[in-house]
Here is the input.
Amino acid sequence: MFHAILFYTFAAVLIGAALGVIFSKNPVHAVMLLVLAFFQSAVLWLLAEAEFLAIVLVLVYVGAVMVLFLFVVMMLDINVERVEGGFTKYAPFGLFIAALMVIELVQIIWFRSSGGARSGGFAANPEGYSNTEALGAVLYTEHVYAFEIAAVILLLAIVAAITLTMRKRPGLKQQNISRQVAVKRDDRVRLVEMDAETEQ
Here is the structure.
């Protein structure tokens, strides 16, 4: 019963965070809500006893991918001074998300240490079971094409983000390759004759 309450609570927070990412007008708020959504997914993986997926989701997505997202957000002509100046305005929102994550982690740790995972919810795994091995066996056999397609989609997203940041803006210096190739020696090197200087 308690397992079901935790699951539906975390799932509701995950859905709310995902909707907040979609409908948030402030990009900084959207990034913070996306961090919360990733964290909720990791908590749900912990409930399903898939610790490897939970750790990878937190370390890779929250720790690395979200840093890249922040770089992209900051490169899309956002008023950085206004964002930095509004730190006190964003601080309560960030503290709320951090406190929510800590409370959920404490609940999961308490639930797993008290033996709640064995009393109900998901079926207990047999001795010596490795969810990492099972994940690899399924991911690289049955779903290998979907895995490769997801990698291509992520690559296209990275290229699209770089393209957005390289659009024409005032003061942006761009290379003219044809002009560089067509340049002549006389355009680059100029010989200057100077009179010899004599020591006095």
Q: What stands out?
A: The chain has two domains: 1-124, 125-168. Residues 1-124 form a domain with the Four Helix Bundle (Hemerythrin (Met), subunit A) fold (CATH 1.20.120.1200). Residues 106 and 167 are 46 Å apart (CA to CA).
